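Contributing new records

If you add data, match the layout below exactly. Sequence lines come first and carry their own label; structure lines follow with theirs. Keep one chain per record. Anything else will be rejected by the validation script.
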Amino acid sequence: MYIAVVFLTMLILPVASIAIEHGVDPDIAVAALFGRWFVFWSVGVRLALAGLRQIFQPAFTAREIFHVESDEVLPLVRELGIANIAAGIVALLSLWNASFVLPSAIYAGVFYGVAGVIHVMGRDRSRNETIAMVSDLFVAAVLAVFVASVLWR
């Protein structure tokens, strides 16, 4: 299930949404479509879902992603979940308020980029941690290109 959610929100659904909207209105700039749909799916939906899981099943993140067996970290994982839900809500609302797209992309680009680098530096990665690492770095790169295209046009 974890792999499916990550794959859908980090690649399949954003690309499908871009293709559909571009097909409906080919005059919309492709960079704007990438920003809108990667922020919505990869930031909004992905972080909101991750946040919910971190709040209600913190042991999954603690054990499967961070390799921590102690229950002492579960309150910290829940707080990470709250932060993820907050960021996810802003990104979800970006569909209705386009001014939320760029700040969400900047936040998530930094978040995913740093998280991905931390995963790269880790040893003995689990399958789930490898999936997290690859998806984090991929989305960070997409968002970095989008942010650069907006700031340096």
